[in-house]
Design a protein that fits this description.
The protein has 16 helices and 14 strands. The chain is α/β, with parallel strands linked by helices. Strand 2 (46-48), helix 3 and strand 3 form a beta-alpha-beta unit. Helix 12 crosses helix 14 (348-354). The structure holds FE3-S4 cluster. FE3-S4 cluster binds next to helix 15.
């Protein structure tokens, strides 16, 4: 397939915009060939996932671009880094690792980006609008941007995302094009799923895990929900479905912007398959999020994806007058921006009095911060529960926010399964 280039593209490829822009666009052009695109399109924002330090190659790539004078040409936010500059010495992060991760942060910051250091960039004012063409990395953020905001992005991998931000161009393909955004699989909630359960704080997490597993990389449409999820519930769904599956776009009928009706969600075509979701499947999905049944507990981790201001608000009253057990650490991960807001509004006092800790700009999966003696973890995040057993080699128990707080206080895992009929 022949790729049509504009005058400006050709000029950039000749080096008229500098060597970094030439390198970036030549990679975009090469990738357009790989995905079979016949044109490029302008993007108006980017979110860069290559910021996490995972070794020498990623650092070398970032520093090479920086040495060539790379500058982004669209508003660009940064995903988590591998380092919490403020608190890393409280944990087990090796000093040399911290130095390298910091070099990588400086390289990306120097390209004219906004140092947001968060995997939840949609919590910021800069978030994209409906229909906006963007190039975002980070799977949960991609699913949120496409599905909840109605912006348009493909699943941009590390290193390619920054090339789009520097050149301002992306292959015109996949979810950038309206005709590729129609639903494919229909998930219908059955009548045995109670309204009360649908309002619980762990329902959308469990549902997202189930939908992701069954959808893989198709576009699911979810129908039959009675409640209206808030943004944190949608965030939890995105993170879960993009981890257990490759979901980059979903539609919830009557809730997400491209799905005012079933017909709109499927763009007038019939679903490839219809799947009924009942209590049995949901219970199984919840069970799958716990790896290594044990009531031992060393650490509770919240904030995957990064904690929002609304979550800090929900957490504070649960901690009032209580204290974490001396044998259990209680950690919240968030962005520096969101924790700044939480501090200004007095929401961190309860966490500090409780004995909780904060990690900003990174997370326990992106930074080697956990010491070996921490073995048993608890979380309210499906994404964390999905990746942590393999990446950290720890036992993970999944629970609601209330379960996590109660367990931290008791010093052992406590889970209330009454809404799940356990
Ligand atoms: Fe964010 Fe780390 Fe979870 S990057 S989505 S907190 S694994």
């Amino acid at each position: 397939m022949t790729l049509t280039l504009t005058e400006k593209d050709r000029s950039m490829l000749k080096g008229d915009f500098g060597p970094a822009a030439r390198m970036a666009l030549s990679i975009v052009v090469r990738m357009a060939g790989v995905v079979g695109a016949d044109a490029l399109l302008d993007i108006t924002a980017a979110h860069i996932d290559s910021t996490v330090y995972i070794g020498a190659a990623g650092l070398e790539f970032a520093e090479r671009l920086a040495r060539l004078g790379a500058k982004v040409c669209v508003p660009t936010t940064l995903n988590v880094s591998g380092l919490d500059e403020f608190h890393w010495q409280e944990w087990a992060v090796p000093a040399e690792w911290a130095r390298q991760a910091h070099r990588q942060m400086l390289a990306y910051q120097g390209m004219g980006t906004t140092p947001t250091w968060t995997c939840a960039p949609y919590q910021l004012e800069l978030r994209p609008a409906f229909g906006q063409q963007i190039a975002w990395g980070e799977s949960n953020a991609i699913a949120f941007a496409n599905s909840v905001l109605g912006a348009r992005t493909e699943r941009y991998p590390d290193l390619f995302d920054i090339c789009c931000a520097i050149s301002g161009r992306a292959p015109a393909t996949g979810l950038h094009l309206a005709e590729n955004r129609g639903g494919q699989l229909l998930f219908r909630l059955s009548a045995d799923v109670s309204e009360k359960l649908q309002y619980s704080d762990d329902f959308y997490t469990v549902l997202g895990n189930l939908v992701g597993k069954q959808t893989l990389d198709k576009i699911p449409v979810i129908d039959g929900l009675t409640g209206r999820p808030d943004e944190d519930q949608l965030k939890a769904f995105c993170a879960a479905a993009a981890s257990s599956g490759g979901v980059a776009l979903f539609h919830m009928v009557g809730i997400t912007p491209e799905a005012p009706s079933l017909e709109h969600a499927f763009q007038g075509t019939p679903p490839v398959q219809a799947i009924e979701i009942g209590m049995q499947a949901l219970r199984l999905s919840r069970q799958q999020l716990t790896h290594g049944l044990d009531d031992q507990l060393d650490l509770v981790v919240l904030g995957c994806p990064h904690f929002s201001l609304a979550e800090f608000k929900r957490l504070a009253p649960l901690l009032e007058g209580r204290h974490t057990h001396p044998g259990v650490k209680f950690l919240v991960t968030s962005s520096r921006f969101m924790t700044g807001l939480a501090r200004q509004t007095g929401l961190l006092q309860a966490l500090e009095a409780f004995g909780g800790q904060l990690t900003v700009d990174t997370c326990t999966l992106a930074s080697p911060m956990l010491p070996a003696e921490i073995k048993c973890l608890m979380t309210n995040s499906a994404k964390f529960a999905y990746y942590a057993p393999g990446m950290l080699e720890k036992n993970i128990t999944f629970g609601s926010l209330q379960d996590c707080v109660d367990s931290a206080c008791a010093g052992r895992v406590i889970r209330d399964g009454s809404l799940w009929d356990e």
